[in-house]
Design goal:
Length: 82
C-alpha cells in the first residue's frame, strides 16, 4: 500500500501537491490527489528548524529538522491500495 499525503499551502514547490511514500521511497507531484482511503487530516507548521503538527491521528506532535524552512500546509493523509 502507498501512503498518500495531499497538501494545500505555502512552502512546498507548488500550492497544491501530493506526496507518495512506499517502501522508504518518497516522491511529490504538483497536483492535489485525494487518497482512496482517508486516514486523517492535519495542519503542519514548519518554522526554521521546528515542525509542529496538529492531526486527527496523533493530536499534537513536534519534531526538529536539519534545515531551515517555512511551511504552512493543511493536508489529508491516507493510503492507495496499489
Amino acid at each position: 500500500m502507498k501512503k498518500v499525503f495531499a497538501e494545500i499551502g505555502i512552502g512546498n514547490p507548488s500550492f497544491f501537491s501530493t506526496e507518495f511514500e512506499k517502501g522508504g521511497e518518497e516522491y511529490r507531484i504538483p497536483e492535489f490527489i485525494l487518497p482512496k482511503r482517508v486516514k486523517g487530516y492535519y495542519l503542519r507548521i514548519w518554522i526554521f528548524k521546528k515542525v509542529y503538527i496538529i492531526s486527527t491521528n496523533k493530536y499534537f506532535q513536534t519534531s526538529k529538522k536539519d534545515k531551515n524552512n517555512f511551511k504552512l500546509v493543511v493536508g489529508v493523509s491516507g493510503v492507495n491500495l496499489v
